[in-house]
Please model this.
Amino acid sequence: MKKIFLKYGIAICSIITLASCDKQLNQVNPNTQTSASFWKTQDDALAGTNACYQTFIEDGGYMRFSPILLNVQGDDIKSNSPWTAISNAARFQLGTADNSGYGWTFDEFYQGISRCNQVIQNVPGISMDNTLKNRLVGEAYFLRGLYYFHLVNMFGSVPLPTTPAKTMPQSTVAQGWAQVKADFKAAIPLLPTTYANPDKGRATKGAAMAYLGKAYLFNGNFDSASAQFKSVIDLNVYSLMANYADNFSENTENNAESVFELQFSLTAGGTDLQWQGVPSSTWGFYSARAITFGAPNFGWTDVQPTATALAEYRQEKTKDGKIDPRCLATIFYNDTVDTHLATTPMYQTTFQVAYASSPAYMKDTYCKKYENWQGSKPNEYDWKSGINERLMRYSDVMLMYAECQNELGNASECAKYIQLVRNRANLPDRQSEFAGYSKTQMRDQIGH
Amino acid sequence: MKKKQFIASILLAMKIIVVQFTIAVTFAFSVYAKKSEAQGILDKPVTLTVDKITVFKFISLMQQQTGVKFLYSPSAIDGNKKISFSGDNKKISEALCEVMKPLDIRYKVVDDQILLYPEETSLNPLPDNRTVNVAADHYVGGTVVNEKGEPQAGVSVTIKGSSLGVSTNEKGYFRINVKDDNATLIISYVGYKSQEFKVGNKTDFVLKLEPSTDQLNDVVVVGYGTQKRKDLTGSVATVSVADAKKNPTYDVAKMLQGQVAGVTVHGSGEPGGYVSIKVRGISNFGNNSPLFVIDGVPIDAPFDFSPEDIESISVLKDASAGAIYGSRAATGVVIITTKKGKAGLPKITINGYAGIQQVPKKISVLDRVGYQKVVNAATTNAGLSLVPANDPSNPNFVSNINTDWQDAALKRGSIQNYNAGISGGSDALNYNVSLGYFDQTGYQVGPQAYKRYSLNTSLQGKKGRFSYGAKVAYMYSKKGNYAGTANHAVFGGTVTSMLTAIPTMPVYDSTKEGGYGGTDQTIHRAISANVVGLNSIVDDWSERNRVLLNGWAEFEIVKNLKYKINASFDRTDYKNYHYEPSFNMGFYYINTQYYYMEGFGQPNKQLVENTLTYNITEGKHQADFLAGYTFEKQNSPWQTGTSRDNGSMQFPSFSNAAASANTISEGRATYVTTGLLGRINYNYDQRYLLTVNFRRDGSSKFSPAKRYGNYVGVAGAWNISNEKFITLPSAISSMKLRGGWGTLGNQLNLTEYQWQPFINTASNYNFSNTYAHGATTVSVADPNLHWESSTTSDVALDMGFMKEKLNLTVEYFDKKASDILTDLPLPYSVGSVPNTIRTNAATVENKGIELTLGYRKTEGRFTYNVSANFSTLKNKVLKLGGTNNPIYGSGSKTEVGRSVGELYGYQTEGIFQSADQVAGHAFQSVQTSPGDVIFKAQNGKNNDHTYTLTDANDRTYLGNTIPKYNYGFTFNAAYSDFDLSLFIQGSGGNKVFNGVYQALMTGQYGNQHTDELNFWTPTNTNTKVPRPIINDPNGNNRFSDLFVENGSYVRLQNVQIGYNIPASSVLIRKHVFNKLRLYVAGENVLTVSKYKGYDPDFISDGLFNRGFDYGSFPNPKTFMFGIQAAF
Model:
């Protein structure tokens, strides 16, 4: 009897434990929600759209490599970096074996596009405030256009997925530009002209129009480009900052001249730099541009302006015979000979003191834009810069508009806008002189 | 009926007690040791008046009244005799004397029970069902000695053909009553041959034990049970634990190096460093460590437990043996049992060793003068001005610093291990408690070390039909890690950085923050890590607290049908700590912000296993059945806090940081696996053996549709030597042919919840310095993820020669792993991060032959044994998933038809000697000049200057990184009180990439190997070393065959010489010690290898990048002294 009880008891117990244990095979991730349960609420829509901006400030984005790649591949910039990812880019040598740098840029921009695609696909179906819905979808279109602008501009024939997680073949460059323009066009009607705080820094109608114009310009469609730039000017919300250097400092971000800028911050996020990988809550919103471009003993000096660039800046003096303030805001160099300054302030010292013992450094030229040399920092070795990257300034719009006008044969309109920008630098009024230039002469002048 | 069963189980218990355990429990214990205790039992009072009842009844009444247990064999004593007794408050001893003496029944106390036995059998009878029939008294006596001539206690002495037996006392003495002169004595003792001696007319004997050479009857621990070696059908290797323990290490995995055919181990010299172990090659693209099962509990991170506690190790190599572990066994299983207590007086053992360790060789790098010469040439060749520190005409020229960084950064390390144990108990409950302490300090300057305290307690016993056991293990360890900084990469780790550090950098510099020297961007131009400074300044350690609780109970439901429940709980609390203050070690190593990190985790695992076993013997048929259900649940919560801000922390603590400097993150994960298992072992007449295993596993790591996997193993064996119609030559004492086939699963290379896509909630942004929460899907997932599986076929021949003195096993295996989880690259345009998708894609095959040979011999006072193992391995990728695109690593390529991770790079053809030669060769770079390396174009365009060399077209395979063969050889010898052992192991047939040498042959600003001095110049053209040139425009230092070397080596891993204090010494005679052995040993004594680096045995377990030495800590040379004592 007892035995039977035991036998069946064990059998029954085993079956019960068996069944209940196998139920435990259904484990739910306690850390976060599944993708299938997302895109249901207004908060989801907002958070999903914010995420579209984030990849722009990662390592391959504007935290470090986008400005490096866009800068070093020009004849006004040199790189003596020991890191070949930078110095080889400056020599137009990119191997396929090591994709450091440019590969990160390519990769991260597509991560951004995947996020934009999710917003564009999912947000329209969410029941929420319609104005906000339109704006968010507009932001996603703008950002996708901007990512594709970079990709097509930097890499040429790239795949153009417009839905999430889709494998696509390479497209032609023309198809790429068509996608860029289509995205900006879709964004313009959905976006507001301005934002109140705390939303300052989001994509605006003006930004989308300016970039659409730039896309036309890059394809030689001066007519269409000109029209877009003109409509930005006609929005009447932008103006030039009186002080040119305000465009590269941390205190004067999202200013009147700013059409679109990427937001960096020393205070808003975590404490780690946004290298690459799966985003983490410890990531902050720092830029590493300052340390990378920084002068010797203050940063790594991976990117430097050339002597030619300095010479160009020094060609024309201000009305009062001083050096162009844009030169002083852009390049560190031993300028005691040709300015009113006895010494050049550099962090907590001066250029002349910092390099007193190294004649070679004294003769060289270093980046000054987007460096924190005016503040209280002794150098850039903490890696952290909070200076927003101004992607599109009103002066760009004006100059691109001028360029279009020149190409379209309207020399006087071109000269007018060029001089408007020159006035801010206190350069002599040469509007009428420029108005008399031929198209080719004017091109040379713009090139300068 | 109940009673009968009770007695039967007592009998069984007694059988076990006497046959197996008495041998270990010395006679001494049962004689005097128990005096006081025995007296206590015998003095218990009895008040009883009975008339004409049977002896059995009388015993049971006594038992009822006193609570004292009586043990007896009903056939040995005549229990049906009627007796009468009357006593009031009499002592048990008195009552027994009165009643039993007339019946010729004697008694004695064994533990806390009273054993009744017939007078003739003297002490320690061997109870049996057969009737005791003694014709006449004929006592003989003698002494049993071991091969060294020492008296051996606890040896069983029986009379052939009868049930009579005794065991020897502590002086090796026995006395036994034999029938007549024709009787034969049989002596037997664990580890020794069973021998027979004719009594004849002698009355006094000196009998000598001979060490056993027969391993066929050795009990081998297999999954969920044990088997005799001769009954094995699968591929199960047993490790000689005594030999393995001679390797001084904290990690059982490292102990197995060279011990078992088919097991490969790589370790490094870092204290507490990682050890990689693989059974039969690479069978997946992730974790290839075998499953470790310690005392029936699957254990992760077995290095937490002290190897000193190990009693036996078995390695299940094939699928038929491993199938019982189903989803856990695809990478092999290592089954470990730890020491258990044995009934008897407490036995105390103390073992310890202490030694010194140092790097076995020095790598020849440049001093100041050589360094300056090379760098000056490099800058001049590049058209750059000389580096001020290297330019004699510069005021900053360095002439007074000449640091030898190997001298500065290396020291003598130490290793110590102590273990104290106590064991004993009774059959109802025995215990073993051991305490261990391990301490290893690194040989690189800095506070880095590994320390471990461990406690292992095991209890087990048996009462009636219940058997039970429990185990409590606790461990604390602390490992100090070498400098890794959060803010600055230490390129190539601290070993490579130590070698490439420039001689013109001082070790110390009191003018710099932190006090350590560094380079200057302007003066030296070199980025050079000061490893002495970094190791000392950066405080990085990890701490582990681990508790393992295990309990089991077994109940015999009916005869031979047993139910067992085994439950365990295993929890580790770990803490990782990192603090780096702000410091200035020059140039790149300027740290203006502190970084503080504390990470915690509490991984814990619950395991419940229910098993039913049944065995049946019916004539020549014998079968064992096993069925079971297992449940395992693992939780892995973790939390990490970090703090980062300007300057240093006044005192490292989150409380001292600004709130904005602190961040916190956490994660939780749980997975559950369940398994149904079954096994049948069938044995017909010891000739034909068959094993069938089955397991069905479910795992929460897969989607509900893909959750379960079924695994089967079948194996058979034919004991040819037991076959009636085959007569083997007499030299062959045993011969067995066996083979098996089976499938196994694996899920280790998958993290929890990976089959579903999830929302990343940290894709944040900010607008105008205001945080803006971002959330979205960032990673692509494969919902069809399923189990990895492997299929193994195995054929083997086990042979014994010369009465099992020589044993040989030859085995061939073919293991095919399929559905291997691989991170297949996704096109970047998908936008997934990571830009890979984990999916079941690849198939890899491993084939090999394994040979194991053992020989032992005794000649007089000289005994020795030799064991050797040799295995080959051929790895081949059969499938890589999708379109079978090759997988590239940095300098490696994995392609279908070749082995995993073969080296892949440029082939060199010497040095360009002239501009004409450059112009006549495929284009390399605009700056290619005489003195640069010639790289070969692989597509026939080698001599076509219009063709440009590219990575995609002109790299080629440079060698296989997986050793073709591994071997181990052990020689143990003893002469009198001395013993000697040698252990040699090695591997070969593989190529390795010497990344350290590559880093030392750059011709850049870092320090260089002395080989670099022979660089090419127009006047020094007969050289293989290219011209040094800053920025290396021709890529002379690229990944090429210049740095590929032969990885073969043979190493005298261990030499040990021991001395046993002889039994005749005062210490042993006076019972200060039972055993005392002293030894000296050398570890990593001698290595024969062509490898230029520190150590050809290095850690390189990258996914597809294997065989890369990027500065693994070389295994140190150790000299040590040890002591082993038992009390």
